[in-house]
Amino acid sequence: MPSHPAVVLDLSANGVGIIHALARRGIDVYAYDTKGPYSKGKSRLASCAVCPSPLTEEKALLTFLKGVAIKFDQKPVLYAGADDYVVFISKYRAELSEYYLFLYPEHSLIEDLLDKKKTYDLAMKYSIPTAKTFFVETDEQLDEAIFQLEFPCILKPVFGHEFRKHINKKAIKIHDAYQLKRVFPVYSKYGELIIQELIPGDNQTFYKVAAFFDDDMNLLSLFTLQKNHQFPAEFGTGAHIVSKRVPELVDIGVPLLKELGLKGVSMIEYKQDPRDGQFKLIEINPRFWLTHSLTGHSGVDFAYSYYLYLTGGDPAPQLEQIDGVQWIYLVRYFLTFLEKRRNGEMTWKDFLRGFKGKKVYALLALDDPMPFIRSTTSHLWNAWKRNRKE
């Protein structure tokens, strides 16, 4: 039996995926999150509890985690499923490394990747194709951007994890200059914004390449995937995706991650522009991503390889994957289907076809039903409230 426990910070579907991957291999898992996510994500496969916020209670969370770790005979492996926790762990890495096992790149790089301005600068430095982007701080810069823009375009926060505390959107679609001038000052109250061209193409033009590099930047895990559907349908996160090896993504993504020194687990998202066929950079995440639970069912188990490496297990590199395995976040897939059906973009036949073949569910699990029940109830309740407002 594995002797090192695992501590997971995050009880969203991302964190629950880590719990499932480890607990089913006999690893003792302890999972924590702030009160809201905890109430929706508590798992029977882990010992779960509420923890202080990494945003507003840093010192309390540091004390809390030290108190958790000293109860164990062996250092726990520390996992984070959300940006807030990644930043916290990285910031306090010197103290936390005395109590936990984890692997992150330099703190300055993590900060750069969570800042869309600096990510854009990295794209320019390494000649990575990206959407046309404008950084606006004054009325004059806004007018200049409008002069150069084609509409519709999108408005995005520079710091997405900070912005979503106030506005639960990844991006806002802007249809014309009048709307942009009207809403820009409204949304800018919640943080810095960028204006970006809208790359055409449906959900299936989104791809990800993920990698796990060890301390010496040796590649231990590699995975690529394609989105089929996301939630919300226009600007959202994965609802239905499929494992798919995309050699071109491997060729451009892996050298970039290595050049940046992104040790540990990381992921790059691209969108393929149908106008020129180029894969254009969307974001780089220095952490486990929402749909990582697909990897273990496709022959590349990121969560377990990370555990083995940090506990001296010397995992063999997993660089080949099984293609065609589908990952389904059931309630989000259903709600996205309803939205696309209203717009004439999807039929019941299309929806049911999404369940054919080998598949894994984000949360649906007979041995751990409550995360699925809570998440489904919450999503349906929120959808009902939105429909009432409309």
TrEMBL record:
Residue ranges occupied by any ATP-grasp domain in the UniProt entry: 120-311
Keyword Cell cycle: no
Signal sequence interval, chain numbering: none
Gene3D superfamilies found in the cross-reference section: ATP-grasp fold, A domain, ATP-grasp fold, B domain
Keywords from the named record: ATP-binding, Nucleotide-binding
Record protein name field: Carbamoyl-phosphate synthase
The species this protein was found in: Rossellomorea oryzaecorticis
